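Box 3.1. Reading complex inputs
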Amino acid sequence: MSWSDAFLGTLKENDVRLVSYVPDNVLKPLLAGVNADNYFMPVSATREDEAVGMVAGAWMGGMRGCVMMQTSGFGTLPNVLASLVVPYQIPAILVISERGTMGEFNVGQALVARTMRPALDSIGIAHHTLDDDKTMPFVLDRSIKQAVATQSPVAFILSPLLTGGKTFKPS
Amino acid sequence: MMNRGDLTKRLVAKLKKDEAVIGGIGNTNFDLYAAGHRPQNFYMLGSMGLACPIALGVALAQPERGVIALEGDGSILMNLGVLATIAQLKPRNLTIIIMDNGTYQITGNQPTATKDTADIVAIAKGAGLSNSTWARDEKHFEELLSRRFDDGGPVLIAAKIDDKPATGQTVRDPSLIRSRFMQGLGTGRGGALDA
């Protein structure tokens, strides 16, 4: 089974229906899978913080959701995480495709990537780097269950080791 | 010129079916609180510009419930993209109300772009929200709200309001707000601890 099918299967097993996203190349198989399966409610958002607001509202309305984004999109989130998700105790699930490492060609991506884990740490949001397709379903499943049980958000960083990342031809 | 507190009271008086109301940051949610707390009210204490996305999330999760986003002009200007998202999804149970005083009132009345140039209703229509209207006066505002909130949307109503401050102050306890809101929506755990 592909990493993306295993990932989506684990979301399903945990009743995560709403998937709000800002597209990304590395996320393509996840987004295609979400859009091809009637179980999911896919919503293309214009900004990542809009997607997080949506997932927060859906959670309070009784529907679990996750936000999918790329590394640079995470850079738009500290305010909504610190002023909505964390203080209101909303178990938002953040799925971030990791750019900026292991063969990055865009210096902007490489720099914003360095802010990601420190920002999550400073806001107190648990994060897991998923870099192995064998352990990924276990980490994802247990961490979603923990997020819901403890009413705490959680972030999953999809390493190029898992996804293959975005490659380029050096000139 | 209309007044936010007065319009908010008129809105709340129209709510008959436990509609959810998301009050945007600042004076918008202060006046919602001042209009009389309801279990289905959610008050934002930060995350400026996200009243509409939060309301959209509630509307998607509970398609049978009417959901209303109350937002200010400065806040909606910060997140205009959500209007395009809502127009694409067409949630029939979502209503957006924009209180437009042309200023960032809570930070000292600095002018916003709607003061002289930007037109929220025209922007909303351009985003694809065809059912967007300026309320001409209080009576027209009430007419626009004399409808069922769980169908016929998405609807956007904007009103030019005066620069009077809010008449109340929301309790600043996010976990309490979230917990009570979820109880109001029938999704909370609070009942487990009720006497």
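In summary: Chain B has a mean pLDDT of 96.
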